[in-house]
Design a protein that fits this description.
Distance between the termini: 78 Å
Radius of gyration: 30 Å
Number of helices: 9
Oligomer: single chain
Shape: elongated
Helix content: 55-70%
Length: 198
C-alpha cells in the first residue's frame, strides 16, 4: 500500500513538471523560475527594482461610502442631527452605521426615519429657506424643541417628536458602542458611570 502511494506521488510530481514545461512562455532556464514548483520564486534584483511603487491611502478620505438606505438629502440631515445630539457621533461614524442598520430594519422603523428626516428638511426649508444640514446650532435648537419636553413612558403623539426621540436614543447608543469611542473612553477613564438623564 505504501509502495503504491509512493509511485503515485512520484508520477504526479513528474507530470506536474512536464505540465509546467508545456506552459506558454515558461522558460526552464530563466532566472527566478524554479524547476521544482514547491520552491519559492525569487525575482532577480533588477526585476524587483522595476516593480511599481504603490502609495496606500485611506478609502474614507478618497470617497464617501455608498449609501445603503437613505437618499443623499436624508443622509445629510442625519449627519447634522447626529452631530447636534452627540459631539462624538461623526468621529464614531454613527450616521454611516445607522444607514446600514436602517437598511436591515423593519419597514415601520424605516418609514419613521425617512418621514422624520424628510419632515426636518421640509420644516427647515419653510423656517430658514435652507436644508437642515446647512443650519447653525441656534436654528437647529429651534427645530429640536420637542426633545426638551419632559420624558414620559408614552410615545409622543406628534410623528416628528416620535422620530426625534427614537433618533436621539439610536444616535447615543450607536456612538457609545462604537469601537472608536469605546476605546477613547476606556483609556480616558470616562464612561464608567451612568450618563446623566437629560
Amino acid at each position: 500500500m505504501r509502495r503504491r502511494r509512493f509511485v503515485q506521488a512520484l508520477a504526479g510530481g513528474t507530470a506536474a513538471q512536464a505540465l509546467l514545461g508545456q506552459q506558454p512562455g515558461a522558460d526552464q532556464s530563466a532566472p527566478g523560475v524554479p524547476l521544482n514548483p514547491t520552491q519559492g520564486v525569487q525575482p532577480p534584483p533588477a526585476a524587483a527594482e522595476a516593480l511599481p511603487k504603490l502609495n496606500p491611502t485611506i478609502t474614507d478620505v478618497v470617497a464617501d461610502p455608498a449609501l445603503r438606505f437613505f437618499s443623499q438629502p436624508q443622509f445629510n440631515a442625519l449627519r447634522r442631527l447626529s452631530a447636534a445630539l452627540s459631539a462624538e457621533a461623526l468621529d464614531a461614524k454613527t450616521p454611516e452605521f445607522l444607514d446600514f442598520l436602517l437598511s436591515e430594519s423593519l419597514p415601520e422603523r424605516q418609514r419613521l426615519y425617512r418621514d422624520g428626516l424628510d419632515a426636518l428638511n421640509a420644516q427647515s426649508s419653510r423656517s430658514f429657506s435652507k436644508a437642515f444640514s446647512e443650519l447653525d446650532d441656534t436654528q437647529i435648537a429651534t427645530l429640536l424643541a420637542p426633545l426638551r419636553q419632559p420624558w414620559t413612558y408614552a410615545e409622543p403623539n406628534d410623528a416628528a417628536a416620535r422620530f426625534l426621540r427614537a433618533a436621539k436614543i439610536d444616535v447615543r447608543n450607536a456612538t457609545t458602542n462604537s469601537a472608536h469611542v469605546s476605546a477613547s473612553r476606556r483609556f480616558s477613564g470616562a464612561g464608567q458611570y451612568w450618563f446623566p438623564l437629560d
